[in-house]
Amino acid sequence: MIENKVDESLLVIGILLNFLTNCRKYKSDERQYKITLSEKVKNEFVLLTITDSGLGIDLELYEDRLFSLYETFHNHIDSKGLGLFITKNQIESLGGKVTVKSVLNQGTSFNVYLKEA
Question: What is the CATH number of domain 2-115?
Answer without folding.
Answer: 3.30.565.10
